[in-house]
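Run log, item B.
One chain of 330 residues. Sequence copied directly from the ordering sheet:
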Amino acid sequence: MQVPAERLKPSWLPEALMELQYRFPLTPTPYADVASRIGISLDVLIERLRKLKNMGLLKRVGFYLNYRAERKKAALIALAVRDPDAATRFLAERLQVTHSYIRDHLVYNLWIVGKHPSQEEIVRAAEKAARLYGDGRWVVLWGVRTHRLSVKYDLYRGVSRAGPYSTVAQNPPTPQQLGVPMELARALRILPLEPRPYRSLAQSYGMSEDELLDKVKEMLKAGVLGDPGAALDGHRLGFSYNVMYTLAPRSEGQLTSLCSWVNENIEEATHIVERAATPRGAWKHLCYFMFHAVDEKLSKPLEEKLSKCPLLESYMKLRSLRDVLPGVVR
């Protein structure tokens, strides 16, 4: 196993976490089902998961809520700033900020993912942050299409690898259109570490456990929810090599095809997003994906594949130097 063994004791724990990431049971008793698969008791598994959560290794067990189902806009904001922490705090007061990383780009050192119902508000916030905390340089890279979103870690190979529910719907309904309150859809992001994790949620909203699970499956199918299972803190597990790849197609009309090629050929990419830039023309590397590993050498097979891509003009590797929002539950 590539991940340092001392972080994943006892010996059955890596298998349990792999099951919870990649084969999460859509049943009323997911933890009991996983415990049965690997031959341990339910109480032992839940006790260990609670310890991992207290240690920060386990962020949550639950579902991704598609921001489009919340009718929000999302953007990757690149800034040249003197004080990344202050700039992050400023933007977090105005936007829903889910990621903030210092990266090794020659111009833009701070990279933030921000969401807001108003596209104009995102641009205003980015422009003001760049002016207040830097030299005024900024670019907003909109998420035009998400080809994949699944942040999971292969504990045996030591690389990131997408899960089975990595497709992201581009035009999902709202939870309300499926008869589910938005608050309940948001609550499903973090399931309790209890034998029957849906039961208390269902009771809070006047539903039976089976009714709620049926709604969960309906929202998964419709693209309101996605990527079920355990969300781990990769950095704490030893996945210290965290790189953002940004790709430029040979021609502007090949951008979608380039992102599709990455989706079909690079299973280690945890996000694959097709982007558009504001100001227009400020950034040409508009296909984006993330890669995580325990060692830089594990990126070589990926880059060999990229070198053979007929649609690719060039790419940049922007390594993460510091997570400004460590431990954030996304």
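Observations after the first pass:
- The longest helix spans residues 119-133.
- The chain has a mean pLDDT of 95.
Flagged for discussion on Thursday.
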